[in-house]
Specification:
10-stranded mixed β-sheet, single chain, 10 strands, 279 residues, alpha/beta, 8 helices
């Protein structure tokens, strides 16, 4: 895999897995050479890859829904590299308002690599929420992690359900507000706007409702899941993909293109979407 200081149309999101202390195997033809899957630029919108951590029983949080830590330190470093390779990082409304995520690159070396390559020190932060209230803005302003930490640009994608006064207040705080959609955010139109803003690689970190909506709209190009050796249980504990679900016949088809293991016992599965037909 390539480093982020290579030309933008060749850049990959991570250093070699060996550099991160990860063992890996890559999926290819049964008797042929292994092959890696690198992103291909997408016309009219950014390349979208979802990255989430889950337990062995498929949970992305406990029943408490307080953002429980799931994967180990090696995977945290991997996520930092993915962020460093992205132009923007997106989260959904519940993640935004309940966790106030920082969404920053933490490793100073990775920040320096971005700067040397002529890119902003930090990726753009993007929140997706169909209706923003004054209370939401108050909470985000008080916490400050999403709006202010890292110094990167901040964009909020919302619908016409958000009051004009709320949008104006956010703009006054330096936030770029994208209004697309009447009752819910028009994700396809929002991605087009992000592309116009220079976003070529968009990393999505959840939550489950946003991921489901992106998959439903066929706007996800790649899915990465870090599976941790933990079991949370709980019928109400969230999974990586929410929404109303699909029938077996309408299930989203995936192709496994890589799998990495870490010393912490995590397994990172990398899938390509857009596979025709489900076996």
């Amino acid at each position: 895999m390539r480093l982020i200081d290579e030309p933008r149309n060749q850049r990959s999101s991570a250093r070699p897995v060996e550099e991160a202390g990860l063992a890996s195997f890559h999926v290819g033809a049964k008797h042929g050479p292994p092959r890696r899957y690198d992103y291909v630029p997408v016309a009219d919108r950014p390349y979208v890859f979802v990255n989430m951590a889950m337990t062995a029983d498929g949970k992305i949080d406990t029943v408490e829904r307080q953002g429980a830590r799931i994967s180990g330190s090696a995977d945290s470093a991997r996520v930092d590299r993915l962020r460093a390779g992205a132009d923007a990082i997106m989260v959904g409304g519940r993640t935004l308002t309940s966790e106030d995520p920082r969404l920053t690159v933490r490793d100073p070396e990775l920040v320096a690599e971005r700067t040397v390559a002529g890119r902003p020190a930090q990726p753009r932060k993007v929140g997706v929420i169909s209706r923003l209230t004054q209370a939401d803005v108050d909470a985000l302003s008080t916490g400050g992690a999403f709006l202010r930490e890292g110094g990167g640009r901040v964009t909020l994608c919302t619908s016409r359900r958000t009051d004009v006064q709320v949008a104006d207040r956010l703009r006054h705080e330096g936030v770029e507000v994208v209004i697309e959609g009447i009752d819910r955010v028009d994700l396809a139109a929002s991605l087009t706007v992000l592309g116009d803003l220079g976003v070529e690689r968009l990393m999505v970190e959840g939550g489950a409702t946003l991921v489901a909506a992106l998959l439903e709209a066929r706007l996800v190009d790649e899915l990465q899941l870090a599976v941790a050796p933990l079991v949370f249980g709980g019928e109400s504990a969230p999974t990586p993909v929410g929404g109303g679900g699909w029938t077996r016949a309408a299930a989203v088809g995936l192709e496994l293109v890589a799998a990495d293991t870490s010393p912490d016992g995590d397994v990172v599965l990398r899938y390509r979407t857009g596979v025709e037909g489900v076996r």
